[in-house]
Amino acid sequence: MRRCAGDVPVTYRRDDGEGPGAARNLGIRAATGEYVAFLDDDDRWLPEKVERQVASFDPGVVAVYTGQFAVRDGERVGGRTPSLSGHVTENLLRGEACAPTSTIMVRRSAIDAAGDFDEELPIWEDREWYVRLSEHGTFRPVPDALVRRGFGEYDQLTDDFEAARDVAYPRFLEAHRELAAEYGPACERALVASLSRTLGATAMENGRYGEARRWLLRSLRHDPRQRRTWLYLAVSVGGGPARRGVRRLRRTYESLASRG
User: Fold this and answer.
1) Domain for residue 193, yes or no?
2) Which of 74, 99, 139, 141 measures 20 to 30 Å from 66, CA to CA?
C-alpha cells in the first residue's frame, strides 16, 4: 500500500492481462467500501465527481453515472449529458447507450446481487453488466460533465471482429434474449438489431465489408427504422474508404457513449 496526496491510502493490484472484465473484477474484489467506481487509464475524474455521486445514492438507486467530455490531441471536442434514468433494463436491452465505466459508481450490494463482469466476453462486457445491475434497482444520472475521456485510435480489442462474432454476440444473446422477450417481441428484435449493427460496424473497421453488409442487413430485418444502420450499410458499399467513414460515424454516435 502507498499513500498519496492528502494521506489517502491507495492499493495497487496488477492483473495478468486477461481483459477489461478480469481487471475490473480484480478491483471489485479488492474494494472494501459501500460504493465501487472505475477509472480507465486514459480517462480522468474531475475533483468533485466522487462527492457528487455519493450524494446521489438514495434508497433503491444502484448506480449513479455522470456526464463526460472528450479530449483529443489536448483539446475538448465534445460532451455527453446522461439521459437514462430510473428503471432502465428495457432501454439497455434495446441498445440505448448508458455510460462508459469511468463515469459510473455502483452500490456494492448491487454488485453482490448482480455478479461481477463476465470475463468470457472479449467486448461489450460493460453493456452486459449494466443489464444485470439494472434488474436490482434504478440508475441515476448526474448531468454535469465530471469525467474527461481521452481518445486515440480504437484499440485492437474493439476491432477484433472474430471475437465479437464468435464469442460476444452469441454469449450476449444467450444471457439476455429471454429477458428481452419478457418486455415484448419489439424489445427482443431491438436487442438482436443493436448487437448485429455493432457487429457490422466492427466488421467494417476490420476491412470485412461483405460480412459487414450481412450483419447490417440482419440488423435491418429486425429493426428497419434505425437510421444509423442504414448509414453504416451505405458506407459499407464503399469498400476501402468505408473504414475511415465508419470511424467517423462511430465517433459521432457511439464513442462518447460506450467503448464496447
Assistant:
1) yes
2) 74
What pTM was estimated for this model as a whole? Answer: 0.86
52 has a pLDDT exceeding 70: yes
Domain-ending residue, one of 150, 172, 189: 150
Q: Sign (positive/negative) of CA torsion 200, 201, 202, 207?
A: positive
pLDDT for position 73: 76
**What is the extent of the structural domain holding 39?**
2-150
pLDDT in tens, 90-132: 999 999 988 899 999 999 999 999 999 999 999 999 999 999 9
Whether residue 260 lies inside any domain: the answer is: no
Calculated CA dihedral for residues 22, 92, 211, 189, nearest 10 degrees: 140
Within this chain, do residues 163 and 145 fall inside the same structural domain, yes or no?
no
Per residue, the 3-state secondary structure of the chain, as one string, reads: CEECHHHCEECCCCCCCCCHHHHHHHHHHHCCCCEEECCCCCEEECCCHHHHHHCCCCCCEEEEEEEEEEEECCEEEEEECCCCCECCHHHHHCCCCCCCHHHEEEEHHHHHHHCCCCCCCCCCHHHHHHHHHHCCCEEEEEEEEEEEEECCCCCHHHHCHHHHHHHHHHHHHHHHHHHHHHCCHHHHHHHHHHHHHHHHHHHHHCCCHHHHHHHHHHHHHHCCCCHHHHHHHHHHCCCCCHHHHHHHHHHHHCCCCCCC
150, 185, 217 - which closes a domain? 150
| Structural domains counted in the chain | 2
Check if the beta carbon of residue 129 is closer than 8 Å to that of residue 76: no
Burial of 164 (0-12, 13-18, 19+ CB in 10 A): buried
